[in-house]
From TrEMBL:
Keywords: Kinase, Transferase. InterPro entries: ATPase_NBD, FGGY_C_2, FGGY_N. GO terms for cellular component: cytosol. GO terms for molecular function: glycerol kinase activity. Transmembrane segments: none annotated. The lineage of its organism: Bacteria, Pseudomonadati, Bacteroidota, Sphingobacteriia, Sphingobacteriales. It comes from the Bacteria. Belongs to the FGGY kinase family. This is Carbohydrate kinase. CDD domains: ASKHA_NBD_FGGY_NaCK-like (cd07772). Residues 245-301, 361-434 form the Carbohydrate kinase FGGY C-terminal domain.
Length: 456
């Protein structure tokens, strides 16, 4: 008898995955791929949109041949801040521009001068001034730099909704994507900011639908129910909101390490925004205070440098154990206390690896740099009483990182939260009633406690 499953396409900047979960939310199949980046018309690196599109159909055909599964539904969790501009036939009109693409300074100044200034606008939209990372600014740029292309745009779809559109032909918008530092949403008014209509952009945005909505697939002979897709950080939060009612903070780690506090509803200050603190919208539409840190990317780049210097494979450090004696030596040599104040300068980042006696010491120094930045970022959204901090994603499996975080947050219980692919799981759970006849399990999340210094 074939096992009913839900298929989730989990699309990160680096890794693209197809995952199958059974009705007990056990991961029963996983397939990963990487695509070589292409370039846009300016020569800037960007996502291989054609490769991504073809992989969706190829992957569904492949799993359709697996005799042990019957796919009941499909959903998507992808990185945010990226629009696909489609014409009336649903074809992309431009490359999928990279959210790190440099933004023209004069155009940015013109926008903020016209719409009330950076501080007031950022406060209203809960969006720090981030250039291309504010996806609404990508639309503004397209209109003013390439008006002939803008005129042809039938719909501007955030990436999760474009992937859903590929299977349904139904364009839609979703609050988890709209609410992620896009410059599009007025949080006080709970609607699009007035500039969106004034610039003629509102008509290019598809209708907003509930995050748990599904549509029938046009994929031949499938009978699939297709979700509308979710922004990955908001998707990762869903299983926690379902499983835990007591206030918590989640540090969702990946390329970006994003601290999410769904229980802090106080307004953002100008100072918060300047430190890359913002608000997301969770799948039910409520604001979630968040602080972002580009720590996964930093780790990846610095690890290449470390591994190259010591002639070791980078994978070695994935399973390196925390050594308090190494921490003690570093504290003594560089005259700092981890739980006291941040070193005057980074220990590893931007420094010569040769200043360390061996690669384990160098790696601990790198992780101290990252953990201290994480503490500063997380405390921006830790202004309400919270007993637990959950860490999921790649750093949740990193013993050095987790021990350092537990030392830096003595007032909270710190847990590594192990779930079979948190962002994908969130996208699966979100559409649970549409494909799964069983009740939601209460044991989706495995927790590993990291003892505080006082408990050791």
């Amino acid at each position: 008898m074939q096992k009913p499953v839900v298929a989730i396409f989990d699309v990160g900047k680096t890794n693209k995955k197809l995952l199958l979960f059974d009705e007990d939310y056990q991961l029963v199949y996983e397939r990963a791929a990487r695509f070589l980046e292409v370039t846009d018309e300016d020569g800037d690196a960007c996502e291989n949109l054609d490769g991504l599109r073809l992989s969706v159909f190829d992957s569904l055909r492949e799993i359709g041949k697996l005799n042990e599964f019957t796919v009941k539904a499909v959903n998507f969790s992808t990185y945010g801040a990226s629009f696909v501009y489609t014409d009336n036939e649903g074809r992309p009109l431009t490359p999928l521009y990279n959210y790190l693409k440099p933004y023209p300074e004069k155009l940015k100044e013109r926008f903020y001068e016209q719409y009330g200034g950076q501080a007031a606008f950022a406060t209203a939209t809960a969006s720090p001034v981030l250039g291309s990372l504010n996806s609404g600014m990508q639309l503004y740029r397209l209109k003013h730099e390439r008006p002939e292309v803008f005129e042809k745009v039938a719909y501007a779809l955030h990436l999760p909704q474009y992937m859903s559109f590929l299977l349904t032909g139904i364009p839609c918008s979703d609050l988890t994507s709209i609410g992620c530092h896009t410059n599009l949403w007025d949080f006080a008014a709970a609607s699009y900011h007035p500039w969106v209509a004034k610039e003629g952009i509102r008509e290019k945005l598809a209708p907003i639908v509930p995050a748990d909505e599904v549509y029938p697939a046009v994929f031949p002979g499938s009978g699939l129910k297709v979700g509308t897709g979710l922004h990955d950080s908001s998707s990762a939060l869903i299983p926690y909101l379902i499983n835990f009612q007591e206030p918590f903070v989640l540090i969702s780690t990946g390329t970006w390490c994003i601290t999410l506090n769904p229980f802090d509803h106080s307004p953002l200050s100008a100072g918060d925004l300047e430190q890359d603190c913002l608000c997301y919208l969770q799948y039910k539409g409520k604001p979630v205070k968040a602080a972002r840190l580009f720590a996964g990317y930093q780790h990846e780049q610095e690890l290449k440098r470390l591994a190259g210097f010591f002639a070791q494979p980078a994978a070695k450090y994935r399973h390196l154990r925390f050594d308090p004696q190494v921490l003690g030596r570093l504290e003594e040599r560089f005259r700092f206390r981890l739980a006291g104040r941040q070193p005057v300068e980074p220990l590893f980042t931007g420094q010569e690896p040769g200043r360390f006696s061996d690669d384990a010491e160098a790696y601990h120094a790198l992780m101290i740099d990252i953990a201290l930045q994480q503490e500063q970022s997380t405390r921006l959204v830790l202004k309400t009483p919270v007993r637990r901090i959950f860490v999921d994603g790649g750093f949740g499996k990193n013993d050095v990182y987790m021990n350092l975080i537990s030392l830096l947050f003595p007032g909270q219980e710190v847990y590594a939260a192990s779930m079979a692919q948190a962002t994908a799981m969130g996208a699966a759970v979100c559409i649970h009633p549409h494909w799964n006849s069983k009740s939601l399990p209460s044991n989706m999340i495995d927790l590993k406690y990291y003892a505080r210094a006082a408990d050791r």
